[in-house]
Amino acid sequence: MSTYIIGDVQGCFDELQKLLSKVDYQSGQDHLWFAGDLINRGPRNVEVLDLIMSEPNVKCVLGNHDLHFLAVATGQQTPKRKDTIEDLLNSPRLDEYIDYMRHLPILHYDYAENLALVHAGIPPKMDINTCLALASEVETILQSAQYPEFLSAMYGNEPSIWHDQLAGTDRLRVITNYFTRMRYCSHEGELELTHKADIQPDGFAPWFTFERSDQLQVVFGHWAALNGHTGVDFAIPLDTGCVWGRELTAMRLENKTFSSVEAES
Length: 265
Description:
By secondary structure, the protein is α/β, with parallel strands linked by helices. The protein has helices at residues 13-22, 45-54, 64-73, 86-89, 94-102, 128-142, 147-153, 168-180, and strands spanning 3-6, 31-34, 58-60, 107-110, 115-118, 184-185, 191-192, 205-206, 217-220, 235-237, 247-252, 257-262. It is globular.
């Protein structure tokens, strides 16, 4: 049995099939983990979700594109110019896709491996138990009858830093931004969400450049500009830009080996 952790698929179904074939994935025996952004910007979102939803041993975390799809699909947000989710929105299975995705977590933790799977990252100075508790707050609201209100209010860059006194939508928004949008932050955890991925803003640094004392490993997606490299051992980036014409990448958890396939176009 193997566990394969796959970076941002974003609707690239053909490449996903080729990657699964390359690693000799055995359905029913092996496990698949996905680091978020399952859909959007690529051409075959329906097929990606149909495959993932049909597999017996799958763990996914939500990415910012996945949450955006939920907001559009429930009428809380209008589509953006570069969105490619029409196939999902027009599908007779739309309600099934919404229900499946809003029951996905935004953070998964493997206790045996001391490994966190998350779309964007883990804030510095925040231990995994705190992260799991905060992620659970967002997951609970997504799975409740109040999820449309959350999806409407989740957009925005403020507040930019966590503190215990936060409440309501501000509290949920900053939690969501940490786990699904974060790239640059300060040592204290203040987010900087306005700069492009390859331009470091003054006074901020990539979240993974701040040392951790807990030996936590973090596997994440979201940051295609890293092209699979952080320069630190504990943070493993798996978004290698398939939807931008580069590669789709998987890591076999058991021995930390990587496999990739080139983008179709």
